[in-house]
Amino acid sequence: MNNLLQEVENSKAEINNFSTTDKNPAEVFRIQFLGSKGLIKSLMGEMKNVPAENRREMGQVLNDLKLFAENKYEELKKTSDNGQETTGSEVDLSLPGEALPLGSRHPISIVRNKIISIFQRLGFAVAEGPEIEDDWHNFTALNLPENHPARDMQDTFYVSQNPDWMLRTHTSSVQVREMKKGKLPIRIICPGRVYRNETISARAHCFFHQVEGLYIASDVSFADLKQTLYFFVQEMFGNTIKVRFRPSYFPFTEPSAEMDITCLICGGTGCNVCKHTGWVEILGCGMVHPKVLENCGIDSNKYSGFAFGMGIERITMLKYQIKDLRLFSENDLRFLKQFTSAV
Q1: What is the pLDDT of residue 83?
Q2: Using an 8 Å Cβ cutoff, are 250 and 224 in contact?
Q3: Which segments within the chain are labelled E, that is strand?
Q4: The model's pTM
Q5: What phi and psi values does residue 6 have, to the nearest 5 degrees?
Q6: Is 14 annotated in some ligand binding site?
Q7: How far is Cα 309 from Cα 225, in angstroms, rounded to an integer?
Q8: Tens of pLDDT, residues 56-112
Q9: Alpha-carbon span 195 to 155, nearest angstrom
Q10: What does the DSSP assignment read for 33-45?
Q11: Which domains are seen in the chain, by residue range?
Q12: Integer Cα distance of 276 and 64 in angstroms
């Protein structure tokens, strides 16, 4: 114990007489005396060699030493701060600041905003809804009752069951919510993120982004749908793009169709992206099924409408000729910096 007391006295003298030529003496002092490998820590470790009956007394001595060192450290910090203030000539505040790197918009955001802008010029308003939906809004109201085989095409991630709550598989649920309000006519687009239980690959992902459209009024025809989509394609891809409609099946529309455009990768000559057909499907569409209107409290004898839906990723891949869907969610700056500036 006497040896430890002598070391404490020597340490106190060393702390009191501390000096250094370093520009930051407070930090040097902290490391030397108060750091995890400093002198105070080392002396504290010697407590195990002190007899039990003397440990309380020795502990008080070491605590006093630590307090003495901390006070010295605070004095050095004040001296350092005052020294920096008096040597302000080392920092020239008139010099220009370092330029911050300019960010860029995500390609999905660029195309999403472009799609919204096109349809807003046609009088479509933007409607949004929750990403977690109940079974009725996501399936049943859209003519997809329980055990309907078409549900298999939209397997998703369930949050809970009985009652079923899930991550929505399409933004059609937003259309249902708008139709239930009963404010007719309806002319909306519904952009948002959706989810599917799919294997992640260059052409598929477990989440993606959609824009769906809905127009309900008196005497709406399939011709109105076609002209709306013709306008969209020409505004998005140019006037020279070719379009075709193919009959298809969707439970919530009748008749239904899929819309193809000339493959922008190969110019219609055939490649692996278009499966050597020269055509690429970009969206599904059709006239709103009367059962869907009735489910939402709309008189199907008085009103009709059309609906369409497209994946924003697919439109983006075609517009910028991107061949791997996974690039959109990998946050690779080398990829993201290629797109339009945020300012």
Answers
A1: 56
A2: no
A3: 125-126, 132-134, 158-160, 165-167, 186-195, 207-217, 243-250, 253-262, 279-288, 304-311
A4: 0.69
A5: -65, -40
A6: no
A7: 12
A8: 888 888 888 888 888 888 888 887 666 554 444 567 788 888 888 778 889 999 999
A9: 9
A10: IISTTSHHHHHHH
A11: 2-84 (no CATH), 107-336 (3.30.930.10)
A12: 84
